[in-house]
């Protein structure tokens, strides 16, 4: 059986309604819209949730049962053992990618030098396992928010020593990305934001952050690291305002500081909700600016205002995401679906780690099948083309080709009676559109 008391997760098809330890929809090699499912979805496992999360909440300690608990007294021994658990987990689940923060995988020493030495030992073992299994690194990142030294941020810290330390930490993290062939490198803001504006020089902090990214880019070029850099927007939490609030804010930041060619975005469902947006809104915003990079797959809860990191099971949402991905032709040039998600505190046995990933993978595979059916019929494409068709010719075409002026439009509009203007508008039949999308969901999964 191996280290985990679970067999390799098979594709079982749709005979049984009850979800067990098998995939109903995720059939890795099945071809959908010209590509294998696994190549559309590129699932990744998040080290921090799956191997480090003890399922704590602000009111209680961890509830999780994990097979390595109580076996190791030295934290380095445990860190090294977890590599074996991790790679068996990836292989049994059939996830071809994983993601980690530097501090997820190895304990810190007193100095950066000591910490790097710990890290390198674990990275050596990860590298061996990657070679042996073929599992790839979707992205790595640096935890510049866990340790108390980052209490007021890292590259936006008001304390220059902390900025310098963060830069040193990041440098080694980029070297690890190079060594492990990371496809992307993620910068989530962590504590890059503020608690209160009275004590904050916002512009100065943001300029420091931009300079940090430029230094990272320079170093990546110097060492020949070609991982795609990604910013991961989040509106709030842990700070009350995060500088990478949402996709639009992050794009404005990249434009202001000449970073549009350097960075794309890694978008997360629950983060979208914290900004008051849908996941689809964030993905569409990034797509239209040409900066869709990768996706953190999770979902929030309508009734709870913080970052829940639930496994994504909302079929409607996975359908919208996969509709955008099919329209884009890929998640991003090197993107994937990283499960930045944890089982609920009440799902505490080790097997729940498999069950929760299966639930998320099946929800995205089903979303892909539904979105593919909608694309085949060009249902949304036709609906949108029809809605904007008045710009394809006549007065609308003069607006789009730039030949219209206020005067030419006034001349066109000046004597039009109200009845003609009302006749120029059309009902969206929005409820029927939503019902049709529901019908696609039923039909595609028959
Ligand atoms: C936090 C979050 C991070 C990033 C990586 O909400 O999403 O785990 O994905 O730092
Ligand atoms: Co995330």
Automatic annotation (TrEMBL):
<keyword id="KW-0859">Xylose metabolism</keyword>
<feature type="binding site">
    <location>
        <position position="232"/>
    </location>
    <ligand>
        <name>Mg(2+) 1</name>
    </ligand>
</feature>
<dbReference type="GO" id="GO:0009045">
    <property type="term" value="F:xylose isomerase activity"/>
</dbReference>
<feature type="binding site">
    <location>
        <position position="307"/>
    </location>
    <ligand>
        <name>Mg(2+) 2</name>
    </ligand>
</feature>
<protein>
    <recommendedName>
        <fullName>Xylose isomerase</fullName>
        <ecNumber>5.3.1.5</ecNumber>
    </recommendedName>
</protein>
<feature type="binding site">
    <location>
        <position position="268"/>
    </location>
    <ligand>
        <name>Mg(2+) 1</name>
    </ligand>
</feature>
<comment type="subunit">
    <text>Homotetramer.</text>
</comment>
<keyword id="KW-0479">Metal-binding</keyword>
<feature type="binding site">
    <location>
        <position position="309"/>
    </location>
    <ligand>
        <name>Mg(2+) 2</name>
    </ligand>
</feature>
<feature type="active site">
    <location>
        <position position="104"/>
    </location>
</feature>
<dbReference type="GO" id="GO:0000287">
    <property type="term" value="F:magnesium ion binding"/>
</dbReference>
<keyword id="KW-0413">Isomerase</keyword>
<feature type="binding site">
    <location>
        <position position="296"/>
    </location>
    <ligand>
        <name>Mg(2+) 1</name>
    </ligand>
</feature>
<feature type="binding site">
    <location>
        <position position="271"/>
    </location>
    <ligand>
        <name>Mg(2+) 2</name>
    </ligand>
</feature>
<dbReference type="InterPro" id="IPR036237">
    <property type="entry name" value="Xyl_isomerase-like_sf"/>
</dbReference>
<feature type="binding site">
    <location>
        <position position="340"/>
    </location>
    <ligand>
        <name>Mg(2+) 1</name>
    </ligand>
</feature>
<dbReference type="GO" id="GO:0042732">
    <property type="term" value="P:D-xylose metabolic process"/>
</dbReference>
<dbReference type="InterPro" id="IPR001998">
    <property type="entry name" value="Xylose_isomerase"/>
</dbReference>
<dbReference type="GO" id="GO:0005737">
    <property type="term" value="C:cytoplasm"/>
</dbReference>
<dbReference type="InterPro" id="IPR013452">
    <property type="entry name" value="Xylose_isom_bac"/>
</dbReference>
<keyword id="KW-0119">Carbohydrate metabolism</keyword>
<feature type="binding site">
    <location>
        <position position="268"/>
    </location>
    <ligand>
        <name>Mg(2+) 2</name>
    </ligand>
</feature>
<keyword id="KW-0963">Cytoplasm</keyword>
<comment type="similarity">
    <text>Belongs to the xylose isomerase family.</text>
</comment>
<feature type="active site">
    <location>
        <position position="101"/>
    </location>
</feature>
<keyword id="KW-0460">Magnesium</keyword>
């Amino acid at each position: 059986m191996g280290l985990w008391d679970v067999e390799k997760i098979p594709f079982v098809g749709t005979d049984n309604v009850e979800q067990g330890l098998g995939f109903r929809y995720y059939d890795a090699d099945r071809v959908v819209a010209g590509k294998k499912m696994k190549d559309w979805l590129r699932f990744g496992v998040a080290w921090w949730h799956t191997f480090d999360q003890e399922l704590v909440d602000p009111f209680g300690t961890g509830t999780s049962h994990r097979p390595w608990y109580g076996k190791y007294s030295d934290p380095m021994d445990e860190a090294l053992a977890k590599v074996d658990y991790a790679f068996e987990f990836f292989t049994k689940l059939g996830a071809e990618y994983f993601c980690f923060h530097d501090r997820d995988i190895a304990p810190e020493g007193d100095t950066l030098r000591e910490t790097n030495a710990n890290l390198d030992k674990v990275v050596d073992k990860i590298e061996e396992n990657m070679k042996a299994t073929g599992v790839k690194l979707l992205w790595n990142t640096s935890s510049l928010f866990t340790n108390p030294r980052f209490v007021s941020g890292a590259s936006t810290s008001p304390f220059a020593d902390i900025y310098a330390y963060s830069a040193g930490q990041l440098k080694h993290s980029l070297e690890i990305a190079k060594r492990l062939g990371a496809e992307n490198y993620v910068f989530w803001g962590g504590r890059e934001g503020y608690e209160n504006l009275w004590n904050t020089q916002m512009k100065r902090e943001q300029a420091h952050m931009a300079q940090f990214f430029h230094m990272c880019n320079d170093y990546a070029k110097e060492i020949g690291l070609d991982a795609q850099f990604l910013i991961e927007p989040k509106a709030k939490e842990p700070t009350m305002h995060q500088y990478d609030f949402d996709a639009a804010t992050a794009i404005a930041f990249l434009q202001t500081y000449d970073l549009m060619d350097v960075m794309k975005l890694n978008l997360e469902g629950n983060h979208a909700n914290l900004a008051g947006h849908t996941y689809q809104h964030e993905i569409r915003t990034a797509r239209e600016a040409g900066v869709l990079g990768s996706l953190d797959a999770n979902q929030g809860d309508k009734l709870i205002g913080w970052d829940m990191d639930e496994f994504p099971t909302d079929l409607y949402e996975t359908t919208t995401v996969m509709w955008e991905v099919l329209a884009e032709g890929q998640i991003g040039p090197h993107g994937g679906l990283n499960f930045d998600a944890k089982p609920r505190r009440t799902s505490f046995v080790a097997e729940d780690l498999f069950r929760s990933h299966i639930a998320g993978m099946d929800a995205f595979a089903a979303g892909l099948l539904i979105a593919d059916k909608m694309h085949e019929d060009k249902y949304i494409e036709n609906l949108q083309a029809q809605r904007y068709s008045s710009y394809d010719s006549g007065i609308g075409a003069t607006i789009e080709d730039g030949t219209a002026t206020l005067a030419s439009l006034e001349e066109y509009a000046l004597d039009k009676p109200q009845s003609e203007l009302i006749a120029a508008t059309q009902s969206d039949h929005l409820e029927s559109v939503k019902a049709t999308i529901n019908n696609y969901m039923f039909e595609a999964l028959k």
